[in-house]
Design brief:
The protein has 273 residues and is an alpha+beta fold. It has two domains: 123 residues, no CATH class; 132 residues, no CATH class. It contains ten helices and 14 strands. It has a five-stranded mixed beta sheet with strand order 11-8-7-6-14. A four-stranded antiparallel beta sheet has the order 2-1-3-4, with helices on both faces. Strands 5-12-13 form a three-stranded mixed beta sheet, with no helix packed on it. Helix 3 crosses helix 4.
Amino acid sequence: MQHFNSMTSAKLQAYVYALADPRTKGSLKERIFYVGKGNGSRCFDHAVAARGRQDQPLNEQEHKLSTIQAIQNAGQEVEVFIVSHGMTDDESFALEAALIPLVGDTNAVAGHGDRLMWLKKNQVEELYDKPIERSDVELLRGNILFVSLNQQDTNALVKAGAEEQLAYVTLGDWNLGEPRSRLVDCLIGVKHGLIISIFKIEKTSEGVAKFERIPPLKAGAHGRSRFVGTRVQELEEKLASRSVFEGDAMLSKIRPGAACQFFPAMDETTEHS
């Protein structure tokens, strides 16, 4: 069963897709028989549904499944194209509504030269199904603190106008000891292991990370740190919704029960806790 993994799905957001018949010769516009809106792996669901109903009669309104079944019975698979992606639900519904009457019209494929439109599954995965290797990004080679934003509405936080709130939830307060807090170079907010926000931590003249130490509320509890940092938006946009690896180890997946996880600079040690 074809599907997109969570990293790819997060990067795609809402999208519009098209189904094409590989048996039909000619241009793409002549092969498309369906346009839809989706999230996640929705674009592959029709083929699964058609295969599951091979022995069941279809009604007149199910010509889409009938076409897919004919393709499958011919020993082929329906072609799936991601027409456009990275949209909100409302934007994708609007594009879907605009394209449906144009299926078969030359103008419907006018964007074929754009590498971010009319993409096939392998092209989508080439773009987004690639984790980041820590050593490839200079900022990530330093001391990193990954922090969990699992409890946050991150879709709202990354929208224009929410910059202060995003900074507030990313920069603190984190249960990290004072010695390690002094070392932090980069703070990365992640949700389920995928990057949401990136902040470069400001330093004192002595090269120590700037942070406020929050005293514990209860006796015997640990203090927390709230950092001072600047959002690295250009890098954030490039790396958003991707995971970070060092070799075979996934660094951006915070261990169960923890809210943050520190990794020392690569040129100092490869050990982490």
